[in-house]
Amino acid sequence: MEKHCDLGHILKPNMRAFFPAEENPSLGVGRDATLLSLDLQVQPFTMSHLLPPGTYRLRLLIAAANAKPVERSFEIIVTGNWLDDEARMLSEGVALRIV
């Protein structure tokens, strides 16, 4: 049985102004660039849930009471580009790969 969870989301850059928790001027990211917003249970006041363009590594340890733990590492690449075409956005705007 598969389970899914939301890791984060990316808003169209010109829509960030409508959501105060999606904007962090101290990152120095232009209004035309994308940010990866981590979907946390609680958004920190430090705005550290917002990741500017860059390459990030995420290590997950997936476990259950009736299964052995599985460890996986992922690389998330946020280019900062927004593309209206979904296929292009998922190849040129943001990428996720197992490492």
Give the strand content. Answer: 35-45%
Distance between the termini: 23 Å
Main β-sheet, in a few words? 3 strands, antiparallel
Major sheet strand order: 1-2-3
Oligomer: single chain
Question: Helical element count?
Answer: 1
Order of helices and strands: EEEEEHE
According to DSSP, the number of beta strands is 6
Derived from helix and strand composition plus strand pairing, the structural class reads mainly beta
How much is the radius of gyration in Å?
15 Å
Poorly predicted parts = none
How many domain regions?
A: 1
* Mean pLDDT score: 92
Shape: globular
Helix content: under 10%
Detail the topology: elements first, then pairings.
Blueprint (H helix, E strand, L loop, with lengths): L7 E2 L26 E3 L11 E2 L2 E11 L2 E12 L7 H8 E5 L1
Antiparallel strand pairs: 1-2, 2-3, 4-5, 5-6
